[in-house]
Structures are given as C-alpha cells and as structure tokens.
Specification:
Elements (H helix, E strand, L loop, with lengths): L1 H30 L1 E3 L6 E3 L4 E9 L9 E4 L6 E3 L6 E3 L6 H9 L5 H4 L2 E7 L1
Bound molecules: zinc ion.
Length: 122
C-alpha cells in the first residue's frame, strides 16, 4: 500500500503543478497587448470585453432546429477598455493573433476576458 500512496502523492503533485502552469499561461495570454485602430491605444487582452454572438436555427421537420449556435470567434466583437467601442474581430488588423489566443489554448472566453456578454441575433 505504501507504493500506491507514494504514487498517488506524485500524481497529486503533478496535478498541482499543472494547475500552476495553466494559470501562468493564462496570465501571459491576458497580458498580451492588443491595439484598437480607432483610438490607437493598446490594452492587455484580459482587460477587453468579449461579445459572443449567437445565431438561431429555425425549427424544421418535427424535431430539428429551434436552438442557438455560437458564432466563430473571428465573427464576434471585442470591446476596447479605453474608449468602450466595439471592434469586429474579423476586421481587426491583429485578427489572426486574437483568434489564435482565444481559440488555440483551451481557455474559455470567460477566463480570458474581463467580461463576456452574449448577443442573440435572429
Ligand atoms: Zn479604444
């Protein structure tokens, strides 16, 4: 049993280490500067707000449809913390970087951004 206990302690330590590394990684992502083209100010990604667009699928046949999908990150908006303006990610000069940071690391938008709101579009 002692061996099992020792191995379990090692696993617990690995889990703790993993949590710590993930936290550091998230902080690095949140500190990356994003510039807004209109006000020309740079702000850390973690201080922007994210607007998650949702789109509706009309009911069809007997059981299909009648639900809301999530729009892709590139077709959502982020809100500049300095001037409070919405910025369509698709038109942002740093679009690829923003999409990679948001989608490429398994962190939710709620974790990355200061605030997330949903925008339901019929
Ligand atoms: Zn701004």
């Amino acid at each position: 049993m002692a061996v099992i206990t020792t191995l379990q302690r090692q696993l617990d330590k690995l889990d703790n280490d993993r949590v710590g590394v993930l936290k550091q990684k998230l902080q690095v992502i949140q500190r990356i500067l994003v510039k807004y083209v209109k006000c020309h100010k740079k702000s850390r990604l973690g201080t922007w707000s994210f607007i998650q667009d949702r789109w509706y699928v009309e009911p069809y046949s007997c059981t299909g449809g009648d639900y809301w999908n999530y729009s892709k990150t590139e077709t959502c908006d982020i809100v500049c913390p300095k001037c409070n303006s919405e910025n369509y990610i698709y038109n942002h000069p740093q679009k690829d970087k923003i999409v990679e940071l948001v989608d490429g690391h398994h962190f939710s938008t709620a974790n990355i951004f200061k605030e997330v709101t949903e925008n339901f579009k019929r």
